[in-house]
Amino acid sequence: MPCENCQADLLRRAGLKVTRQRMAILELLQEEESLTADQIFMALREKGQEFGLSTVYRALASLEEKGLVSRTELPGSSSQCFFLKSGGHRHHLICIRCRKRVLLDGCPVEAFAEEIAGRSGFVITGHSLEIFGLCPACQQEDAHV
Question: Does 26 share its domain with 39?
């Protein structure tokens, strides 16, 4: 169950104005693991919320800019999926068919990033890891086709 006050507080802490559009998108992304802008647009319409597609894109851009939402591109697709960014950095397995996201435990990249920083002289300010493939349910579907 979404927490409206929590979403409004989240927006305020990020320095964003609390709008109906941003609140609706945050609520929707709490219900779903990841969605494209078009899927968000259609889901909002199905819920009777008539926002334009350009409004959805602008709201997503501001949410992403403030670090509340992240975006990923699926390999072999022009689709970009959006998902809630929740505290700290996280790494995911992502199904290329159903877009299911599985959170990886810990950070498999930390030691590697430190090694690269030492060798290159870079100051690493962050990193992200997304591994794409087919989840067990989608593999099972393929087996039955």
Answer: yes
Q: Convert the pLDDT of each residue in 103-130 to its tens digit.
A: 788 888 888 989 999 999 999 887 778 8
Q: Cα separation of 14 and 101, whole Å? A: 25
Beta-strand ranges (E) seen in 6-107 are 35-36, 69-73, 80-84, 92-95, 101-103
Paired sense of beta strands 101-103 and 69-73, if any: unpaired
Count up the domains in the chain and report the number: 2
Q: Which residues pair with 101 in a beta bridge?
A: 94
Q: Whole domain around residue 70: which residue ranges?
A: 1-87
Tell me the CB-side half-sphere exposure of residue 141, using CA atoms within 13 A. Answer: 8
By three-state DSSP, how is residue 16 classified? coil
Helices (H) and strands (E) in the chain, counts: 6, 6
Helix (H, G, I), strand (E, B) or coil at 131: strand
Same-domain check for residues 71 and 96: no
79 lies in the same domain as 9: yes
- Over residues 16-53, the pLDDT tens digits come to 999 999 999 999 988 877 788 999 999 999 999 988 99
- State which H helix or E strand residue 41 sits in: helix 37-46
